[in-house]
Every structure is written in structure tokens, then in C-alpha cells.
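Reopening: Polar amino acid transport system ATP-binding protein still failing for me.
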Amino acid sequence: MIKVEGVTKTFDSNTVLDDISTTINQGEVVAVIGPSGSGKSTFLRCLNLLEKPSSGAIWLNNSEITNLTNKLEVREQVGMVFQHFHLFPHMTVLDNVSYAPQKVKKLKTNEAEETATQLINKVGLGDKLDAYPNRLSGGQKQRVAIARALAMEPAVMLFDEPTSALDPEMVKEVLDVMKDLAQTGMTMVVVTHEMNFAREVADRVLFLDEGKLMEEGKPTTFFSSPTTDRAKAFLDKIL
Ligand code: ADP
Ligand code: MG
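Support: Ran it again with your exact input. Result attached.
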């Protein structure tokens, strides 16, 4: 579904992604892990063209996106969930979720709201349709953000440390929604420090260090027998 070939990203003289190549298959859940500053967010942002690679190419469903001028087309197909939610503060939960389908996909209000209501129910917030974000807990906000991304019917969902800003007691409710989503067959790329999630839910782990894809493999293999010293040192620190 996604093919990444030789992607390099530099900011001034700083090489943040260094010749990354990988393929992400339909329905696959890929966890991206690595130390702070290793390029995880930049990698994710390249996948929906929030950043443009300095060189290399990315294909989505067999069409190259790195030479597209219309980034919105890509963003419609690639949903993204951020660490800090980024909900629209002046809109209710229902409006947060139903807004983009009306604006971008030109759905009628009642259609968009019907789909949005289903998604909001699915993330367990059916009683919060009319609430504003400032009335929600962090975990609830993040579940709204997930519903909002899903409302665009993306082909792929990207998550950038979706639970890192949450109080510990709220992490599980968000991970549970993500697990459910994985079980529906959604293709997901998840930057996370939740190693249990990576171990249990991911089909594959990508380990980034200093902008390089140092290791790639099944979670069981990666966590039990990492091959590079970098990965060993990283896992020693966090596990
Ligand atoms: P991670 O998500 O793994 O912590 P990032 O992808 O956020 O890493 O950042 C990798 C490196 O790229 C860092 O050194 C960061 O300072 C740098 N970087 C990220 N975005 C920009 C930017 N827009 N301009 C300049 N440097 C950036
Ligand atoms: Mg990051």
C-alpha cells in the first residue's frame, strides 16, 4: 500500500532521515520506535506530505505522491492523529468529526453527521456529541481525534505518539480503540513508546536511530533478539 524508496530529508545541513526504504502492506500495523530525535515524526510526516522528502520517492497505492502538487489528495487518503489532539476548540465533538467530510468530501450535513455519530459511538463517546473539547479528558479528546480522522475514510492511518500526552489511566482507552481499529484491517503506522502495544498489535517494528532505519522485523524477533548495538542499547534503557 505504501512504498518508501531511498527517502532522505535534510533540514539545512542536518540529515534527519537517511535513505529510508520500506514497504507497508495493506492491513499491516507497523510500529515505529526509536530514541527521541531519531526522525520518527519526520518519517510519518513524509508519508502524508506534511514534509516533502529532500530525495527519494513514496508511493501510495501505486501512485507516486512525492511529485504531486495536490497535497490535499494525499491527506484525504492518509489520516493522522497527533500527540496533542489538535481538535477544533470552538466546535462540538459532532462538528469536529463531521466538518471535514462536508468541506472536503462535500457530504450533506445529515449524511456526514450520521457517519460521524456512528464513529463517535464506536470510540465510546456517544454521550458526548454536543460537548466541547475543553470538557473532555485527554483520553476522550484523543478518541475524538481518531474518529475525526476515520470520518474521511482514509486508506491508511498514521499515529504520532498518540498516548504520550495522556495521564497513565487514559492510555488504555486510546490503545483499545487503536487495537479495535487494527482488527478491522486498517493499515496503520504508529510511532509509539508503548512497547506492549508494539509487541501485541504490530505486525512489524521499524527501529529508527539518527535518521537511519536500523532494524525492521517481527516484534517477537526484534524485542527478544535485536541485532544492532543501537537497538540493544535502546531496549535496555526502556524495558
Ligand atoms: P522524533 O520524532 O524521532 O523525536 P523528529 O522527526 O521530530 O524526531 O526530529 C528529528 C530531527 O529533525 C531532530 O533533530 C529535529 O530537531 C529535526 N527537525 C524536525 N523537524 C524540523 C524542522 N521543521 N526544521 C528543522 N529541524 C527539524
Ligand atoms: Mg516525534
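The CA atoms of residues 98 and 113 lie 5 Å apart. If you still see a failure, please send the error message rather than a screenshot.
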